[in-house]
Structure to design on (248 residues):
């Protein structure tokens, strides 16, 4: 089969296991729950992937009490990743806004996600809550990959304070900070292959935070004359970048 024209067979499932053609596996708990929710019958077609590249055609064997068993068939060496590598460094927003931003950023091809605790973040996470939220956000990203066809799962980094994050930023890629009223438009600039996009939470960044980000090498850029909500800005910005230099 030509990988470039491979069709997705049945529901897609992420499974954090070693996968080999012509083998049988017992699904992880999360994947098994997904199969149960789909009410898939024995013999039903599946597509499974583990984030290490490509995907596998598969079929459901059974859903017995000892575990949900799946037969792995052919490996399809297909990728749906953009050549443009985008790291999204995003201030933590409240409610479902963060989930929405991560879901849509994943669908649009973001490479990695770094949640940030900022001065104006409404949400404040203690260590135990941060761990639970991180696991939740990673599951949001996995579900988005299952839906959109990606076989590489973007990693969601541990929550960092903005100051700590800025101290860890490595050179070698374009650093952009969304800033309402910035003189430079996001669409301006030479073609690039790697970008870190810094976006604040509700209310954006404070003056000291903006100054610190600029000192760390982030260039203020604007998405136009209107101020976008924190959940809208990542979607719009990544879509612009993928249109300019990626695969949209």
């Amino acid at each position: 089969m030509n990988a470039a024209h491979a069709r997705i067979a049945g529901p897609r499932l992420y499974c954090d296991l070693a996968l080999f053609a012509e083998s049988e596996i017992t699904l992880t708990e999360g994947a098994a729950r997904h199969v149960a929710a789909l009410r898939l019958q024995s013999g039903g077609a599946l597509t499974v992937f583990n984030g290490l590249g490509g995907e596998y055609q598969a079929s459901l064997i059974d859903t017995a009490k000892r575990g949900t068993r799946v037969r792995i068939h052919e490996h399809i060496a297909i990728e749906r990743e953009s050549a443009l590598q985008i790291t999204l460094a995003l201030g933590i927003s409240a409610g479902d806004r963060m989930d929405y931003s991560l879901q849509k950023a994943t669908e649009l091809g973001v490479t990695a996600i770094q949640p940030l605790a900022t001065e104006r973040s409404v949400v404040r996470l203690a260590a135990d809550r941060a761990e639970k939220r991180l696991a939740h956000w990673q599951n949001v990203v996995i579900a988005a990959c299952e839906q959109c066809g990606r076989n590489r799962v973007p990693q969601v980094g541990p929550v960092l304070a903005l100051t700590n994050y800025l101290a860890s930023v490595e050179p070698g890629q374009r650093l952009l900070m969304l800033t309402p009223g910035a003189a430079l438009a996001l669409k301006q600039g030479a073609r690039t292959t790697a970008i870190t996009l810094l976006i604040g939470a509700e209310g954006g960044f404070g003056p000291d935070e903006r100054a610190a980000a600029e000192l760390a090498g982030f260039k203020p850029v604007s998405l136009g004359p209107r101020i976008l909500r924190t959940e809208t800005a990542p979607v719009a910005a990544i879509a612009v970048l993928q249109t300019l230099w990626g695969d949209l």
